[in-house]
Amino acid sequence: MFIDFFYLLRQKKVPVSITEWMTLMEALSRGYAQSSLQAFYYLARAILVKSEVHYDQYDLAFQEYFKGVEASEDLIQQALEWMRNPANLRLTPEELAQMRRMQRAFEVEEQDGQHDGGDRWIGRGGRSSRGHDGQGEEGTRTDGEGGRRSAVKVAAERHFKNYRDDVTLDVRQFQLALKRLRQLNRQGPVDELALEETIDATSRNAGELELIWRRSRKNAVKLLLLMDVGGSMTPYSRLCSQLFSAAHSATHFKDFKYYYFHNCIYDRIYLDVERKSTYHTSQMLRTLESDYRVILVGDASMGTEELTQRHGAIWYIDKNETPGILWLRRVADHFTHCVWLNPEPLRLWNHPTIRMARQVFPMYPLTLEGLDLAIKKLVVKL
Amino acid sequence: MGVDGNSSFDQFVGTYRYIVSEDLRNAVNVAIALKRPLLVKGEPGTGKTLLAHNIALGLGKPLIVWNIKSTTKAQEGLYIYDTVQRLNDSRFGDKDISDVRQYIKLGQLGKSFVMQEHGVLLIDEIDKADLEFPNDLLNELDVMSFYIPELEETVCANHRPIVVVTSNSEKELPDAFLRRCVFHYIEFPNPEMMERIVRVHHPTIEESLLRECLKRFYWLRQFEELRKKPSTSELIDWLQALMAGGVSQERVEKELPFLGALIKKEEDLDYLEGKLTGTFGQRRKYV
């Protein structure tokens, strides 16, 4: 009955999960909607929508679904009656058909959605209505789908695949990955009780308590982020800004520096995305110690001359006296740990300038998996 | 719980000190009825923390507050085993240190479980803590029990506390945590609502002064350029200052006295000065 509303919400990009939907069903069956559409509106919103960002979409969906029924409270009454029968909480054949239709729709959606980080249908962590959530699957089976592959299963397979390869990353996932970028050293005030040593010293002291304190462990990693902005990077700007905000909000780095460049690093780098204020690359190399962990983000796809020739920079203001590839080498030589994250799909990595950049820096795709590998590379001890 | 839930559903209706909008009241009651944590977000100063205090007040239940800091660990909310104290006591022999129980101190979450009566637990500013923090509490909040290995005991909630979680969206919360919560975003109150809220705090305020102040307040809030827009709590402080200073309505109309109570950032003050004097905030730079 209401199941259409659920799909409508998802169609409007509100990430509603089966768990939340079942919670709403539970609430309805207990009569919390008080037989009024108004109360239902708030009830459903409190349970289904978990971010104010989606309130608007929820409103749209609600309007669309309940258009015209505002006057009659019958619908809710009917629904409540219907909810009281637990058998109704399973999917009916019509709903199953509906689900199949939706799935076809979302296969299409998925294909053109893949590129721009289409995390809408293949939500992470089982947000998807067709995840491996037991409930959905059970509902399908009761219909006697039998030997054929159920829609749920197909969806589950796809879900998994996309989770691996797709560029669906959000700030939180980036943050979690960056958390692994740490090297703990003991520093700061002596304020941590060393239990082992204390016991040892106390025993030696014939049971007279002797407290041993030590410095607590702090992360010693300093991070330098160099990002390619503008031009061919524009399609990836959302992805890059997510990585940036993750790095920026991470509090566990000892220091975090970031500069921007256009296509390649030349004599000067930029302090802002608009590339208005410049900074000398040589000065950066002079002032930053070589133990900064460096993450370069860029597609490394450009004309060969941009990399190999003097004055090759595509942006006339850059006017480089030294070819880009030399600058890249200088960066790689100065810092002990560098990685390059490339948002371009792997199949395009045969591009001549990507190959050249890969000879200088270890390159990883800008995906969750790629970032994980890159971070492992950044924490190896030399 | 059966269908009889209907009669007991509308438990929370606000208090004499806290005006609650209809949607917020609904969200609170849904959370209470479904026994799920209520996650409250909203602009700073919209009364997220006060909500929990007033749920406790309105329902006549005790409140336990767990303030989250960046260093808070989930474990601290459950219990702390004070090994150092035990070690220290072992020197004097005036206590029976074989009784581990006296060194187990329950945290705020643990305390809310063992309370003899039904209480309210406020987990304030959950987004301040480490990224993993909400995930570490999933099970405890779900089943409302936890295990203490030192005592080989499981602490179960006598009465499931009403859990209110507040967040300022400094960090994103994990999906698994969100799925278990009832969510509400406290919108910034509109002028009518604000008038009711102010009257709760300053019942004696003059009608004309209040009108003028609200007009000025919403005028200030319309500037998108402000780094930090003034909020409800700042308005209430400002009115307090105006009343204490005996400022008249005309003065509020002409200038903005005690602007510092409303605007907390220097850039914003500069900007407003520019707006008020027509110098576009340039003047200070040449002084």
Keywords:
heterodimer; A: 382 residues; alpha/beta; Rossmann fold; 3 domains; 5-stranded parallel beta sheet; two-stranded antiparallel sheet; 16 helices; 14% strand; B: 287 residues; 15 helices; 9 strands; disordered N terminus; disordered C terminus
Walkthrough of the structure:
The complex is a heterodimer of chains A (382) and B (287). Chain A has 382 residues and is an alpha/beta fold. Chain A folds into three domains: 3-166, no CATH class; 186-218, no CATH class; 220-379, 3-Layer(aba) Sandwich (Rossmann fold), CATH 3.40.50.410. Helix content of chain A is 46%, strand content 14%. Chain A has 16 helices and nine strands. Chain A has helices spanning 3-11, 18-29, 37-48, 55-65, 74-84, 93-113, 134-141, 151-165, 171-179, 195-204, 237-249, 281-287, 304-308, 324-334, 352-360, 368-379; strands at residues 184-193, 213-219, 222-228, 255-261, 268-270, 278-280, 292-297, 337-342, 363-365. In chain A, helix 9 (171-179) packs across helix 11 and helix 9 (171-179) runs parallel beside helix 16. The radius of gyration of chain A is 28 Å and the shape is flat. In chain A, 35% of the residues are buried. Residues 105-168 of chain A have low confidence and may be disordered. With 287 residues, chain B is an alpha/beta fold. Chain B has two domains: 5-186, 3-Layer(aba) Sandwich (Rossmann fold); 191-286. In chain B, 44% of the residues lie in helices and 14% in strands. Chain B has 15 helices and nine strands. In chain B, strand 6 and strand 7 form a beta hairpin. Chain B is elongated. Chain B starts with a helix and ends with a helix. Chains A and B meet through helix 2, helix 3, helix 9 and helix 10 of A and helix 1, helix 2, helix 5, helix 9 and strand 9 of B.
Query: What is the H/E order of chain B?
Result: HHEHEHEHEHEHHEEEHEHHHHHH
Please tell me the total number of domains of chain B: 2
Helix content of chain A: 40-55%
Name the overall outline of chain B. elongated
How many strands in all of chain A?
9
Whole-number radius of gyration of chain A? 28 Å
